Amino acid sequence: MSRLVLIGSCPSSGSTLLADLLDSTPVSACGPELGLFAVKRFYDSWERGRLIMKDVSDSPYLLYSRLNKENLSGYGIDLKILEFIFKNSRNFQEFTTEFSNWFIALRSREPNAITFEKTPQNIDTIKIFFEKDENARAVIILRNPLYTFDSLIRRNFSPFLAFLTIAHCFQIAYDLKDNDRVLIVKYEDVVSEPFQTVKKILLFSGISFDDEKTFWKMFKNNLYRYYHDRVRDIILFKNAVWTKWTVQKTGVIENANDREISSKTLKLFNAGINSNFKKFKILTPVTELFSAFGYSFNNRLRTIDGKIKPSFNDLVFLVKKKIIASSGFTFIFG
User: What value does the mean pLDDT of the chain take?
Assistant: First the structure.
């Protein structure tokens, strides 16, 4: 088994809570979002002889995926050390092993502990990750798409980009659902059975863990996640528009689905269900994507004729992204 397991998701799907939980055992650790493993061209670094830390993103709502340099400190390293690890690794597997060793030592975990790296955009590079390491594993967390949609709208996503982002992630999960190297978990199960979910993920990753008492003690007193995830975000992104998003507290499990959805959001979501996204590489009908993971809306949403459409700003963003992706400057070194 690989010492590094990737966690990918749609934004606002509960991946931060899952990271908190997985960082609460002696045999696992999960740091702040690094972003590096979501960079497609990063996996070509060994062939090109230099560390590639930025590339055009496959995620509908981002132009680029990049290394979050400000989060390296959460792993006990800086850019100079990261480059040292890269230069002294003959291949990708050696890099992930040494990277994990640094982090596990920093966190004083057991020698065989697993490092989980949670960046939502990791969902876009799982297949490449597997190509580079035949022993690699990945976890995808999904959440009821209606509540994810509502959360993204609250984070100032346009309705079109919010729904397209959800459909994009569900399509990837759908395509990987029969892959035995991928474990798909649902946010609703994480909230209702947190310890059982952690046990399941750890066993999937090659480690058995049954000490529930230790788990809860570590979870409720996890100052590492508080300072390196929550406080760091407040300091670095206090002026960002998306900080209107409500960040979940550490050491507490709250069900973010326990809230009312406005009639306006319901209508917009239903319009998304009625829409076709094949031109955006969503080849499976969204109703099939959602129902494949137990999410059905036939009894809740009233059928309407409207479809969700991109705004002018959406179109400008998507055209800009397409131009960048096809320009030849598809990756940036250093």
Answer: 89
**Both tokens assigned to 309:** 């459409």
List all residues 6 or more positions away from 267 whose beta carbon is below 8 Å from its beta carbon.
Answer: 304, 306
Lookup result for tokens 């209107």: 244
19 neighbors 11 (Cβ within 8 angstroms):
no
Which residue ranges form the domains of the chain, and what is each CATH number?
4-333 (3.40.50.300)
State the pTM of this model.
0.90
pLDDT digit string, tens, across residues 141-193? 999 999 999 999 999 999 999 999 999 999 999 999 999 999 999 999 999 99
- In this prediction, what percent of the chain has a pLDDT beyond 70? 87
Full 3-state SS string of the chain: CCCEEEEEECCCCCHHHHHHHHCCECCEEECCCCCHHHCHHHHHHHHHCCCEEEEECCCCCCCEEECCHHHHHHHCCCHHHHHHHHHCCCCHHHHHHHHHHHHHHHCCCCCCCEEEEECHHHHHCHHHHHHHCCCCEEEEEECCHHHHHHHHHHCCCCHHHHHHHHHHHHHHHHHHCCCCCEEEEEHHHHHHCHHHHHHHHHHHCCCCCCCHHHHHHHHHCCHHHHHHHHHHHHHHHCCCHHHHCCCCCCCCCCCCCCCCCCHHHHHHHHHHHCCCCHHHCCCCCHHHHHHCCCCCCCCCCCCCCCCCCCCHHHHHHHHHHHHHHHCCCCEEEC
Measured between alpha carbons, how far apart are the two ends of the chain, in Å?
30
Could you report the per-residue pLDDT of 277-299, keeping only the tens digit for each? 998 999 999 999 999 999 987 65
Mean pLDDT along residues 189-210: 97
Distance CA 283, CA 277 (A): 7
